[in-house]
Specification:
The complex is a heterodimer. By secondary structure, chain A is mainly beta. Chain A is built from 1 helix and 5 strands; from the N terminus they run ββαβββ. In chain B, helix 6 packs parallel to helix 7. The chains are: A mainly beta, B alpha/beta. Chain A: Pfam families: ThiS.
Chain lengths: 67, 338
C-alpha cells in the first residue's frame, strides 16, 4: 500500500497495517512519537489497533532531546 | 536613532509592543547552541532582563554552532553562562543579564522561578530530565515555557501555556531513555537556528500578549520537510503535571535521576527514577557505524568513548568508569545517552 508520510508518497510492505507496526517499520519508539492520520491525532493507547489504509496522509513527529 | 526602530515598524509589535518587551523577564535554561542563539536574539530585541543558567564551560567543539562564544572563551574554558554574559552585555547594555553557573535541577529551577517570576521560560537544554522539571515548574508558578530541541538536521518546537495547552507530559508521558543526541548523531547550525527562530518568535508574542502558535512544529532543514500538528486534543485531565490533581512528579526528589560515586571504583552510577527498559538499539547501531566496539549481552552493553567506559544495563542503570566526578559523569551521560 501507498501512504503519504510527512508529505512524501511511500510504499509500505503488506505486513504494516497498524500505527504501531508503522512506527516499528521506521524504527521509531512509540513513546516519543506523535502520529496524525488524515488530520486526526492518534492517542498513544490506540497505536496497536488503529489501522492505516491506502492513500492515508500520515504525519509522524518524533521528540528529540538535543540542543 | 532608536535601536529598535525596525522591530517597531513591524505592525504586530509597534511602539507599544516594544515598550511591553522592554519590561519582560526571560529565563533561558541552558547556554549551549539553543541557549546562546535564543539569548542573543532576545537581548538584541531589547527584553528587560535575561537570566541564563548553565552548568558547563566553553569547549572547542562548541564553536561550530554556539554563536556567542569565541576561541578565547574556549582557551580560557570559561563557564558558558559567564562567557554569554560578557558578550550579551557588549551587544546590548540596556538589557539586564543575569548569568547563573549551576546545574538546573528541581531545587535550583523552583527557586529561580519563585524568586525571579519570569514572564516566559525558554528550554535550551539537552535532556528530558530537565525538560520535565521545567514543565512542572511552569505549571506550579503559571509561567509559559517553550520547548525546543534538535539533532542532526531535524528539530522541533512547541509552546506550553499553563491551564490552556497540553503540557509536555501530556504529549510524552514519561522521560524517553536512549534517544539520539547531538554527541552521537551530530548537529548542524541551521537546525539550531530554525528551532531558535520558532522559540524566539513565540517568546516575543508572549512578551506582547499576542496569541501563540499552539501547534507542534517540526522540520528537517536538510531534507526540506516542515510540518505542524495540532496536539490540543492530547491534553489529559489526569495529567500529574497539569491535570486536576497535580503532584508535579519531576519536582519530587524520589523521581530525580540519581548520580552516585561508587566508592573506590572510579565509577559513577546513574540511576533513572523508574526501573524500565532502556532502548539501546539505535545507540548501538550509531556507535558501530562510528567503529566503536560495543560488547553486548542480555543484561548490559558496554563501550568506550572519550576515554570513559560506559556500561548500560537493561534496567536503565548506567556506570561510567574512570571518573569520580559527578558533574563530569552527568555531562557525559546526557551527551551520549540523552
Amino acid at each position: 500500500m501507498y501512504c503519504i508520510i510527512n508529505g512524501e508518497t511511500i510504499h509500505l510492505p503488506a505486513h504494516v497495517r497498524t500505527v504501531a507496526q508503522l512506527l516499528h517499520h521506521f524504527h521509531i519508539h512509540k513513546k516519543i512519537a506523535i502520529v496524525e492520520i488524515n488530520m486526526h491525532i492518534v492517542p498513544k493507547e490506540d497505536y496497536e489497533h488503529t489501522a492505516i489504509a491506502d492513500g492515508d496522509r500520515i504525519e509522524i513527529v518524533h521528540f528529540v532531546g538535543g540542543g | 536613532m532608536n535601536r529598535y526602530s525596525r522591530q517597531q515598524l513591524f505592525a504586530p509589535i509597534g511602539e507599544k509592543g516594544q515598550q511591553c518587551i522592554r519590561k519582560k523577564h526571560v529565563l533561558i535554561i541552558g547556554a549551549g547552541a539553543l541557549g546562546a542563539a535564543n539569548a542573543e536574539t532576545l537581548v538584541r530585541a531589547g527584553v528587560g532582563k535575561v537570566t541564563i543558567v548553565d552548568r558547563d564551560y566553553v569547549e572547542w567543539s562548541n564553536l561550530q554552532r554556539q554563536q556567542l562564544y569565541t576561541e578565547d572563551d574556549a582557551a580560557k574554558q570559561l563557564p558558558k553562562a559567564i562567557a554569554a554574559f560578557a558578550h550579551l552585555q557588549a551587544i546590548n547594555h540596556d538589557v539586564v543579564v543575569e548569568p547563573i553557573v549551576a546545574d538546573a535541577d528541581a531545587r535550583v529551577l523552583d527557586r529561580l522561578v519563585a524568586r525571579g517570576r519570569p514572564d516566559v521560560i525558554i528550554d535550551s537544554t539537552d535532556n528530558f530530565d530537565v525538560r520535565m522539571i521545567i514543565n512542572d515548574v511552569s505549571q506550579k508558578y503559571d509561567v509559559p515555557w517553550i520547548y525546543g530541541a534538535c539533532v542532526g538536521s531535524y528539530g522541533l518546537s512547541y509552546v506550553i501555556i499553563p491551564n490552556e495547552t497540553p503540557c509536555l507530559r501530556c504529549l510524552l508521558e514519561e522521560v524517553p531513555l536512549g534517544i539520539a543526541t547531538c554527541d552521537i548523531a551530530g548537529i548542524i547550525s541551521p537546525a539550531v537556528h530554525m528551532v531558535v527562530a520558532h522559540q524566539t518568535a513565540e517568546a516575543l508574542k508572549i512578551c506582547i500578549h499576542a496569541p501563540v502558535n499552539r501547534k507542534l512544529v517540526s522540520f528537517d532543514i536538510w531534507h526540506g520537510q516542515y510540518r505542524m500538528i495540532d496536539v490540543q486534543k492530547l491534553k489529559k485531565d489526569d495529567c500529574p503535571s497539569c491535570g486536576k490533581t497535580r503532584t508535579y512528579p519531576a519536582l519530587q526528589y524520589e523521581n530525580e535521576t540519581k548520580f552516585a560515586v561508587l566508592c573506590g571504583r572510579e565509577t559513577v552510577q546513574i540511576r533513572p527514577a523508574q526501573r524500565r527498559e532502556r532502548e539501546w538499539t539505535a545507540l548501538i547501531s550509531f556507535l558501530q557505524q562510528k567503529g566503536i566496539q560495543v560488547v553486548q549481552n542480555d543484561y548490559l552493553c558496554s563501550f568506550t568513548v572519550d576515554g570513559r567506559r560506559f556500561v548500560v544495563f537493561s534496567d536503565g542503570r548506567v556506570f561510567i568508569h574512570g571518573t569520580n566526578d559527578i558533574q563530569e559523569a552527568k555531562k557525559l551521560y546526557y551527551q551520549y545517552l540523552g
